[in-house]
Write a structure and sequence with these properties.
The protein folds into three domains: about 220 residues, Rossmann fold (3-Layer(aba) Sandwich); about 70 residues, no CATH class; about 130 residues, 3-Layer(bba) Sandwich (Phenylalanyl-tRNA Synthetase, Chain B, domain 3). Helix 2 crosses helix 7, helix 6 crosses helix 8 and helix 11 packs across helix 12. It has 14 helices and 22 strands. The strands form five sheets. The chain has a six-stranded mixed beta sheet with strand order 3-2-1-4-6-5, sandwiched between helices. The chain is elongated and about 85 Å long. Helix 2 links the parallel strand 1 and strand 2.
Length: about 450
Amino acid sequence: MGLLDQFQTYIQQENLVQTEDRILLAISGGVDSMVMAHLCLQQGFAIGLAHCNFQLRGTASDGDEAFIRQWAQQLNLPFYSIRFDTEKLARAQKKSIQLLARELRYDWLESIRSAESYAKIATAHHLNDSLETFIYNFTKGSGLAGLKGIPAKNGQVIRPLLFAKKTEILDYAKRAEISFREDVSNAADKYSRNKIRHHVIPSLQEINPALEETVARNFSILQESFLLYQASIDRFKEEWVRYKAQQVFISIEGLQSQVETQQTLLFECLKGKGFHYKQLEKILQQLQSKRVGAIFYSQSHRLLIDRVYLILEPLQKPDDNSASIQVSKETQMITLSDGLLIFETKTGKPDSFASPDRSAYLDADSLMYPLQLRKWKAGDTFCPLGMNGHRQKLQDFFTNNGLSRYEKEATWILVDAQDKILWIVGHRVDDRSKIKDTTNSFLEIKYLKDIL
């Protein structure tokens, strides 16, 4: 069966689109999207072409846009394009270029689809892309949902080439004499997916020459397995999870009744809320020790361990100058945008002191709870450790240490219940909170940067 016949069969089998539907094709100018466009035309679909110029490859990016525009004009096809200063936006939003480009692309495609009355958006993902996604998710860590490959359809997005191997697409392009643009960045190992494509998959193909066929069968099995898995999760949530306004109540009894699967159940209940795997372990440890009152923070939510429920709620979103996080005696971990803070009270004095940019040691008996993490504000002063109690404006401390305005705004300040500064997180402890000869117990705070 040729690629065109397989294309038609796959669309019908997966019920991706109807013959009369208009389809908006996400087209880069590369071989995959150009073959998809050719197959759609051969199949008689009414299509429009949508191209995002992310301006990441200089004149080559502009050349891709001009190539597709000219091809659309030759065939009298609707053409839509947009340009993004992706690198600038990624810096401003503190996101990876790849993640941001994906978000920009799908948001824009959906806006065109809706405004121009297209039934679906089609992307040119193929079987090898799905395999790369599986390996990437497996390596980085994901739930079962991340291990079942790329879905054939997701809302209004369809992937009609997902059945095809890359070699089949290239062969079809050659036989049909389809013009396309080469993306030289695909040959580099700069991105993780390229490393998988160039090094991991060829090694797997040496073990199993029929790797793609095996993967296609396994994805089918995993898709069905996921449906069974999801049904089990849904049953648990129906019985043990309650919702009230913006709060989610997860029954502790329900979790503890599922001893062998409680970590997976907790993961599914908290999925998408920003909690790290290590936090899940800590939460379960707290439940096992029956400790009540601990609060765990992600960038968007907080979770309270109450007597009967784990209570999940979104964090308020104040402006940067008023953002704050309360720290109680029971707090063990807080997730910040650039890492974790680990809190542990210990008896005696520290045997040694780690680097001040990674840790703080505070005299526990002198601390007035609740503590609070907040951003700096005008007029803040503290007594930097090592300056014999000399008071210094925080603004001067930042300037003397060469912090940029952005770094100043991003820095967290730990204060006590009377708003006395205890620690400039990642920089300096206040001299009044230091370990003393009279110290009987101390609070150790570890700052684990860039691990999330």
